[in-house]
């Protein structure tokens, strides 16, 4: 680990970022060149003290998970991400076509949707980043590990995941998640991560196994869905998708028709999400 070079790289990348680059407002009294340390720490989901020590060449060696979080928070390109890993004494992640690294362009779009439920997901439904409103709606979906990272796997293995949708819609979502998994399975084969998830679900979920035998296929996502929240109620939402073919990732954005009750509830949810984020900090 090259602490001095790591500190210099982090500092220079922080100073190169402007508030507008990450969806923040530029206050009239701002004198800092680039972002403040506390702003970068919040973007990376880490404490200000931890990040500050890294910039001061006195922090511990970051884990690969922490480095990945910093790469996203600092909006690094793939080359910059690899450089960050090497400075921290780790081997750079393999340049796989399907990786967890979100492109700076997609992150810039996500930054500008701070008051809207939006999240970046892999083709297996693994959530990589969420807006505060998305966390308020779905909970923190980035906290999971292993197969549980996949919403399709969680749907069949964790009953509480279904609480976000009305009971009468559960059967429809079960079929949709199974079809989504099948699409990825067909693309990458039985030896892939999708194959491992299918094998586990066939062994552990009778519901999944029953639906799987029907061999239902679909290549498009539902454009509308009903989502429920314990504090605001059931909302009729429209789904928009921005696909990054290079990374195999999708930016999901949920909106409601202006003038409807769902629109009012979604605006209230955005306030709840912002308050929750400020409380966490």
Describe the structure.
It is a single chain. This protein has two domains: 3-87, lambda repressor-like DNA-binding domains (434 Repressor (Amino-terminal Domain), Orthogonal Bundle); 104-280, Beta-Lactamase (2-Layer Sandwich). The longest helix is centred in the C-terminal third of the chain and has 20 residues, at 261-280. The protein starts with a helix and ends with a helix. With 281 residues, it is an alpha+beta fold. It is built from twelve helices and five strands. Helix 4 (64-73) packs antiparallel against helix 5 (78-87). It has helices at residues 3-16, 37-43, 48-55, 64-73, 78-87, 104-111, 132-138, 151-157, 170-188, 193-204, 206-212, 261-280, and strands at 118-122, 127-130, 224-229, 233-244, 249-255.
* CATH fold-level assignment of the largest domain: Beta-Lactamase
**CATH C-level category of the largest domain:** Alpha Beta
Give the low-confidence spans: 276-281
Note the beta-strand portion.
Answer: 5-15%
Helix content: 40-55%
Task: Identify the strand order in the major beta sheet.
Answer: 2-1-5-4-3
Shape: globular
Order of helices and strands: HHHHHHEEHHHHHEEEH
Output the structural class: alpha+beta
Query: Biggest sheet: strands, sense, closure?
Result: 5 strands, antiparallel
Domains (count): 2
């Amino acid at each position: 680990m090259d602490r001095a070079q790591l500190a210099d790289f982090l500092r220079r990348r922080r100073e190169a970022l402007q508030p507008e680059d990450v969806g923040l407002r530029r206050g009239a009294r701002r004198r800092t060149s680039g972002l403040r340390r506390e702003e970068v720490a919040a973007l990376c989901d880490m404490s200000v003290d931890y990040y500050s020590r890294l910039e001061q060449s006195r922090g511990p060696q970051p884990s690969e998970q922490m480095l990945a979080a910093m790469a996203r928070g600092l909006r690094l390109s793939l080359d910059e991400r690899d450089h960050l890993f090497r400075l921290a004494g780790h081997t750079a992640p393999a340049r796989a076509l399907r990786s967890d690294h979100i492109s700076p362009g997609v992150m810039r779009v996500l930054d500008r949707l701070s008051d809207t439920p939006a999240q970046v997901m892999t083709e297996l439904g693994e959530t990589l980043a969420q807006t505060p409103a998305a966390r308020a709606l779905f909970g923190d979906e980035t906290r999971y590990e292993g197969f549980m990272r996949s919403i399709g796997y969680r749907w069949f293995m964790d009953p509480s995941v279904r609480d976000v949708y009305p009971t009468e819609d559960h059967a429809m979502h079960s079929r949709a998640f199974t079809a989504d998994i099948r699409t990825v399975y067909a693309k990458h084969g039985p030896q892939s991560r999708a194959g491992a998830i299918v094998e586990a679900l066939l062994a552990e979920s009778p519901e999944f196994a029953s639906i799987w035998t029907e061999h239902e296929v679909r290549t498009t996502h539902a454009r509308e869905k009903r989502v429920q929240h314990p504090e605001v109620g059931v909302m009729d939402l429209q789904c928009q998708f921005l696909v990054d073919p290079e990374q195999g990732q999708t930016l999901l954005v949920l909106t409601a028709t202006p003038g409807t009750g769902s629109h009012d509830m979604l605006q209230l949810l955005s306030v709840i999400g912002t308050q929750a984020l400020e409380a966490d900090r």
